[in-house]
Specification:
The structure holds two protein chains of two kinds. Chain A contains no helices and twelve strands. In chain A, about 0% of the residues lie in helices and about 55% in strands. In chain A, strands 1-2-3-4-8-6 form a six-stranded antiparallel β-sheet, with no helix packed on it. By secondary structure, chain B is an alpha+beta fold. Chain B contains nine helices and 28 strands. The model of chain B has no long low-confidence stretch (mean pLDDT about 95). The chains are: A mainly beta, B alpha+beta. Chains A and B meet through strand 5, strand 9, strand 10, strand 11 and strand 12 of A and strand 8, strand 10, strand 12, strand 14 and helix 2 of B.
Chain lengths: ~160, ~500
């Protein structure tokens, strides 16, 4: 993939503020690179305790399942599955509101989309960081040898 | 303790199979079927404090033995590092300043036996972060295994060092830096030549999705030992892709089946504590078909014809080839890499023919996937592919090209190729359209010039000094999003 014309929407995930609602809109376009995945774009308008999530299907699809969940302390209220069994034409979108509780710091809202795209199931997971704070803890001792080799050591089982 | 000691043992990790059923449309990581696998050719070392006393690499069964002399009071430890020597594969934590992953334990008094095992850490609903140590070694072993399979049949191949970035903090969010785990997805990065793998519990973890791992390794192979002129971009089943994209993605999928020994590609993910999965068969079409538009523009067709050319399990009629990995390697590193055209299924097939593949059997295989009996890297034998390459017989060339605004830029309808022979003088390429278009000039995969201002109603132009007799391919790419075709005024001139 040598072309300079790669226009990586993936790398340019839009981030802008909608001042009138005090919310942040984050776009997660269908990846321009990477593992095979469902051709869907997901956008989340994130507020303090809810999000307006929009899924745009970039190909005809049927048997769609969209579920939402949280990690790092974010808990979604209500049904986890927000769409199930529907069909959409290329370019169609669906939006839904997700209410959640979240910790004081950083957490993640997760949107899992799957469906039958052209005869085969494809899936994609998009997620959105809500709040600010340090990265989640990652166990392991980082050490550097006298030779300058830095490793992150986890305890071995035996 | 002081003196000279020997310590030996075995380094292993938990491997967890990813499963998916087409019948029930369900799948998951099957922790109940987890097995201990050896860490093959992984680095093991003894340290006293922060001083490395001795280093070795495990055997193929994971065993190691180290003799060392201790002459200090600092504690002695053994580390198994997620790093192999030949070829060099290194698994780092991109969220911890690229520290290399390792597991370690103290040296027993007097040396003796010390086995080191990395565990999956799954508790039934989530991972225990402290005991989740196998991920880096699962990634390492999949990568090492892929390279080792090629080296077994073509020992002279040279694999450049490969850095793989895996972390339990690598997630699918995109609005932040990679150094904090914002990957979006698992991918090979053609710019820094490294692979990035997601590992976020409750979101998406790919360390055991070995088809995903090897798919991305396949792109590393393309970039370093072969060649890809692919545009990248979004793609999927049924898409009528630019043939470079169809080949690159088809190859990644086919490689995952060839190198894992399992034609069922599975990708697992999470929705909270619930696991999900999807997959496809690298060899066998589904019913109804997942390849509704077969041919040179279909990644599914390319995937299956490559796999059928490789595998020893043949189907009556169309699949009589069993060429093995050596022939695949020769085609990828030979004719495909060196083609004057662009990297499509045509350059690959030309390589298979050069390697002596039976013509009748190969043509039967191609026909099954609606690909013509290709004989050249410019696609002669397949009318649709050959038509992509317009031969410019004389300069100047002035014409109106038509592109399809209903599809993405990486689809066939948005791309035209012009084949130009160098004349030893400067050549200028120009395109004007009401829609956004771009131009790239290639000489055997190297870019000789490009123009792309991301603008509608604009003229794109570039010039390059041509070498007499050399073949160049000019790629006109459209980005227009309109409900139908649109025109581009296109010219190639030389003084």
């Amino acid at each position: 993939m040598n072309s300079p014309m790669i226009r990586s929407a993936f790398a340019c995930a839009a981030l802008f503020f909608a001042a009138c609602t005090h919310s942040t809109t984050v776009a997660s376009p269908a990846p321009e690179k990477g593992k095979p995945s469902a051709p869907v774009a997901v956008t989340a308008q994130l507020a303090q305790s809810s999000a307006r999530v929009t899924v745009t299907f970039e190909a005809d699809v049927k048997d769609v399942v969209v579920s939402v969940s949280g990690v790092d302390g974010l808990a979604v209220a209500g049904e986890a599955t927000v769409l199930q069994g529907q069909a959409f034409a290329k370019g169609e979108s669906r939006s839904f509101d997700v209410a959640y509780t979240r910790p004081a710091g950083r957490a993640e809202l997760v949107v899992n989309v799957s469906g039958d795209f052209g005869g085969g199931k494809r899936g994609r997971v998009a997620s959105f960081v809500v709040g600010e704070g340090p990265l989640p803890a990652s166990p392991g001792e980082v050490m550097t040898t006298d030779q300058g080799d830095t490793v992150k050591v986890m305890p071995a089982a035996q | 303790m002081t003196g000279t000691f020997t310590i030996s043992g075995r380094v292993t990790y938990d491997f967890v199979p990813a499963i998916y059923s087409f019948a029930t449309d369900t799948g998951r990581l099957n922790f109940a079927a987890a097995s201990q696998r050896p860490v093959r050719r992984g680095e093991v070392r003894v340290l006293q404090g922060t001083t490395v006393l001795a280093t070795t690499n495990t055997a193929m069964d994971g065993t190691y033995s180290l003799t060392f002399t201790s002459n200090g009071s600092a504690p002695l430890s053994v580390q198994a590092v997620a790093r192999t020597a030949n070829p060099v594969v290194i698994v780092e934590d991109n969220t911890s300043n690229n520290a290399v992953w390792a597991i370690g334990a103290g040296v027993p008094p007097g040396g003796g036996t010390l086995n080191l095992h990395a565990t999956h850490g799954w508790t039934g609903t989530s991972y225990n972060a402290t005991t989740r140590t196998a991920g880096p070694f699962a990634v390492l072993d999949s990568m090492y295994g892929a390279a080792a399979a090629f080296l077994a049949v073509r020992p002279n191949l040279v694999f450049p060092p490969l850095k793989v970035n895996w972390s339990p903090r690598n997630t699918t969010a995109t609005n932040g830096p990679v150094s904090q785990g914002y990957l979006g997805t698992s991918y090979f990065d053609y710019e820094d030549n490294e692979i990035y793998i997601v590992g976020k519990d409750g979101v998406d973890t790919d360390e055991y999705d070995n088809h995903v791992i090897v798919h991305e390794w396949g792109h590393y192979f393309e970039a370093n030992l072969s060649r890809s002129d692919s545009l990248g971009g979004n793609h999927g089943t049924g898409d009528i892709l630019d043939p470079r994209d169809a080949f690159a993605e088809g190859w990644g999928n086919a490689a995952s089946g060839m190198l894992t020994g399992d034609p069922l590609y599975v990708d697992t993910s999470f929705s909270g504590s619930t696991q999900d999965a999807w997959g496809f068969d690298v060899e066998t079409d589904s019913n109804p078909t997942d390849d509704p538009n077969p041919g040179v523009f279909s990644e599914s067709s390319v995937m299956r014809l490559m796999y059928d050319a490789f595998d020893s399990t043949n189907e009556a009629g169309y699949d009589q080839l069993s060429l093995g990995l050596g022939a695949i390697s020769d085609a990828m590193t030979g004719a495909h890499r060196n083609t004057d055209a662009l990297t499509t299924v045509a350059s690959f097939i030309t390589g298979l023919r050069a390697g002596g593949a039976n013509a009748t059997q190969l043509n039967a295989l191609l026909a099954h996937f609606s690909v013509g009996p290709i004989t050249t890297d410019f696609g002669d034998g397949d009318a649709a592919l050959r038509a992509k390459f317009a031969t410019v017989s004389a300069l100047p060339l002035n014409q109106t090209a038509s592109l399809d605004g209903r599809v993405d830029y990486n689809f066939s309808g948005q791309n035209r190729y012009y084949v130009v022979q160098g004349n030893g003088a400067r050549i200028t390429v120009t395109a004007t359209s009401a829609e956004d278009v771009g131009l790239t000039g290639y000489r055997r995969g190297s870019i000789v010039g490009y123009a792309d201002d991301y603008l509608d109603n604009a003229t794109e132009t570039f010039s390059f000094n041509s070498t007499a007799g050399a073949t160049y391919v000019i790629n006109l790419t459209g980005y227009g999003a309109v409900n139908g075709n649109y025109n581009v005024t296109f010219s190639i001139t030389s003084p």
